[in-house]
Amino acid sequence: MKAARYTMKVTAQRTGLTAHVIRMWERRYEAVAPIRTSTGRRLYSDADLERLQLLRNATLNGHSISHVASLATEKLRQLLEDDQATMPILAPQRHQAPANPEPDIQRHLNNCLAAVEQLDAAALEDALARASVSMGQAAIMDYVLEPLMEKISESWRAGTLRIAHEHLATAVIRAFLGGLTRYTSTAHTAPAIIVTTPSGQMHELGALMAAATAAAEGWRVLYMGADMPAEEIALAAQQSAARVVALSIVYPADDLRLGDELHKLKAHLPNFTTILVGGRAAASYASVLNAVGALRINDMLGLRHQLELLRTRLLPHLSAPSEGELH
User: Fold this and answer.
1) 248 and 304: one domain?
2) What confidence tier does 94 reach under pLDDT thresholds 50, 70, 90?
3) Which of the listed residues 159, 181, 203 is the one where a domain comes to its end?
4) Which domain holds residue 270?
5) DSSP letters of 113-144?
6) Which of 71, 151, 187, 226 has the fewest C-beta atoms lying within 10 Å of its C-beta?
């Protein structure tokens, strides 16, 4: 009988890992070696799935992926058995949500900050991967990435971190978020969302977080990077029939040109397209946001809520199954 093979999407679902983490463990540590199709798609075996699940459990038990990835599968099984033997009281509660998650959240945040302070890109990648495995995508956005970016920004302004630290963190987080967005599968019939920063806004991490969040919520994301002129954003929205344009505004908070850009964007967008605006400096432009009818978003939790509302209110036909899906 032909051995079963699984796509990246199925593998991620069955192992509880994100596609980004699987790819990183595979690339950096050779944790598994999937076969490739003629078109380059990865296909994973049952043995690969078991190994990834064992590695996930080992990292949840506190082992570093760099230390356990090279272990043979049988050694991994033995390691987990030894862990369970030394933690008999805790073992039955392993899959329950912790009563007080704050210590775990703070630990992940501290690990990320320490890696940034030490200019250790590999350690930051590992810290983000561990947080992703432990917490899941939505929680890492809300409780690790958002406060991490704010801490880095505050430390940079205070002079305790230098430009080199900020640039290293930006590069690693950009790659992490890009992986989350790129390897999230969405239906071609899903509603489209344009995510970008307007002209003059060069900081794109907030936009990348919004893109990853929207993709996880089932939206078809067109990520356009930073510093996009209003005409180009509107053209992309028209061609893709985007229901939403999401903008991140971080710095500066007093750009006199931004008001004109937002008015121009509103004038050229289809009537059915909603403008969502978030970011640290968004509140500074409250009057112009109100004038163009934009909705202000405070955080990724707010973005998820607003996208759910828009999908329900504006696109009721998307939530109803088609005749073909009922059979």
Assistant:
1) yes
2) very low
3) 181
4) 188-319
5) HHHHHTT-HHHHHHHHHHHHHHH-HHHHIIII
6) 187
Closest CA to 58 of 134, 125, 123: 134
Could you tell me which residues come within 8 angstroms of residue 171 by beta carbon, excluding any fewer than 6 positions away? 121
Residues in Cβ contact with 298 at an 8 Å cutoff, skipping those fewer than 6 apart: 278
Cα distance between residue 133 and residue 287, in whole Å: 41
141 closest CA partner among 175, 176, 168: 176
- What is the identity of the amino acid at 187? A
| Cα gap 127→268, rounded to integer Å | 43
Q: Yes or no: say if 68 and 87 are a contact pair by the CB < 8 Å rule.
A: no
pLDDT at 71: 93
Same domain (yes/no): 159, 195: no
CATH number reported for the structural domain that contains residue 113 in this entry: 1.10.1240.10
CA angle, 212 then 218 then 224, to 5°: 45
pLDDT (tens digit per residue) in 3-41: 778 898 888 888 888 787 888 888 888 899 999 988 888
How far is 188 from 262, CA to CA, in rounded Å? 29
CATH classification of the domain holding 61: 1.10.1660.10
The answer to whether residues 216 and 255 belong to one domain is yes
Does residue 151 belong to any structural domain of this protein?
A: yes
Give the residue, 319 or 203, on which the prediction is more confident: 203
Residues 139 and 80 in one domain: no
Strand partners, 6: 44
Q: What is the mean pLDDT of the chain?
A: 85
CB 260 within 8 A of CB 288: no
| CATH (domain of 225) | 3.40.50.280
Q: Are residues 159 and 235 in the same domain?
A: no
pLDDT attached to residue 40: 83
Of the pLDDT bands very low, low, confident and very high (cuts 50, 70, 90), residue 102 is: low
Angle at 233 between CA 230 and CA 238, to 5 degrees: 120
